[in-house]
Amino acid sequence: MRFVARQPREGINVSETHPLAEAGVLIVGLTAIFVGIALVLIFLVEVSLYFVSAEKEAAIFASWMPEDLITVSTEDERLEATQALVNRLVVHWLDTPYNFRVVIEDSELANAMALPGGLIVVTQGLLDQVESENELAFVLGHELGHFRNRDQLRALGRVVALSLFFTAVMGSDVAGIGIKAADLTLRGFSRKQESKADAFGLAIVNAEYGHVSEAWRLFERWGIRDDSMSGFIAYFSTHPDTGDRIWKLQVLAETNAWRLDGVSTPLRW
Ligand SMILES: [Zn+2]
User: Fold this and answer.
1) What's the 167 CA to ligand 1 centre distance in angstroms?
2) Which of 88, 104, 114, 228: disulfide with 152, CB 3.0–4.6 Å?
C-alpha cells in the first residue's frame, strides 16, 4: 500500500480557544502568582516582627527621617508645643521603648503619621485646623496607638519586602529603593489597626485630662466639611472617615465610663 502524505488540517497550530480567553487565563494566573508571593512576603514581615524588638527598632531608627520629608524650622513654636504635648501624653504609656520625636511637615494637607523609631509627623495643615489642645492630643494619642501596636514597622516591612520583590521582577537596581514617607503612609492601615489605635489614643487622652470632651471635635467639624475643604484634608486617605469613627469613639467612652463633659485646654501657641 502506498503512503500518501496528507496535508495537515487547517489551523493545526492555532488553539481552539479564543486568544482573548487565553490572554485572560494568563493574566489571571500571573496575578494570582503575584498576589500569592505578596501575601507570603507580608506573612514573613509579620513573623520577622517577633525578632525585631521595639527597643531594637527604636535604636536602629533613632535619627532616621524619610528622604522626601520637608520639615519646618526647628524654631517653630508649634513644634516645641507639640513635642511637649507628646512628652506629657507618653507619661501614661509606662515603659514605652520609644523616644518620641515630633516633626512638622511643611504641607497644607492636614495629616498625621507614625513612622519607624518613634517619629511622629504632623503637618502644618493639621495644626492650622486644631482648635484646642484636646483635639490635638487625641490625634497624637492615636498615632501613639500605632506605635503601641507596631503598625509603623509592619508598614515599613511591607514596603521594603514588596520593593525588593518588584525590583527583582523588573530587574532594576536595588540601590533605587529609597524609603519614602509617601510609600509608608499612602497604603494606610486596616480598620482593625485604626480602631485599636483610636482606643489607645482615647485612653491616653482620658488619663491626661480626666475626660474625653472635645477629643473628636476636629472630626465633627471635618464631617460637615464642604468640597472646598476636602482639598487640604489628606487625613482621610490614611485614617477612617468621620461618621463611623465618631460613633465608635462615643461607644468607647460610654463603655469605659469616661466623662464627656470637661473643660477643654487651649492650645499653647
Ligand atoms: Zn491611624
Assistant:
1) 29
2) 114
* Distance from residue 27's CA to the centre of ligand 1 (Å): 34
Q: How far apart are CA 185 and CA 168, in angstroms?
A: 23
Q: Measured in angstroms, how far is the CA atom of residue 252 from the centroid of ligand 1?
A: 17
Query: 49: CA distance to ligand 1 center in Å?
Result: 19
197 C-alpha to ligand 1 centroid (Å) = 6
Q: How many other C-beta atoms can be found within 10 angstroms of the C-beta atom of residue 105? A: 22
Chain segment 59-111, per-residue pLDDT in tens: 888 888 888 899 998 889 999 999 999 999 999 999 999 999 999 999 999 99
Cell of 232: 487640604
**What are the grid coordinates assigned to 157, written together?**
516591612
C-alpha 151 – ligand 1 centre gap (Å)? 9
CA of 185 to the centre of ligand 1 (A): 9
Contact between residue 66 and residue 184 where contact means Cβ atoms under 8 Å apart: yes
41's CB contacts (< 8 A; 6+ apart) are 158, 161, 162, 165
Report the separation in Å between the CA atom of 172 and the middle of ligand 1, taken as the mean of its atom positions. 33
Distance 149 CA to ligand 1 centre (A): 11
SS3 214: coil
Place of cell 476636602: 230
Confidence of residue 171 (pLDDT cuts 50, 70, 90): low
Strand 112-115 and strand 101-105: the pairing is unpaired
CA-to-CA separations, 100 to 64, 68, 107, 166, in angstroms, rounded? 12, 20, 21, 32
Distance from residue 1's CA to the centre of ligand 1 (Å): 84
Of 155, 138, 174, nearest in space to 57 by CA:
155
The span from the CA of 121 to the CA of 115, in Å, is 8
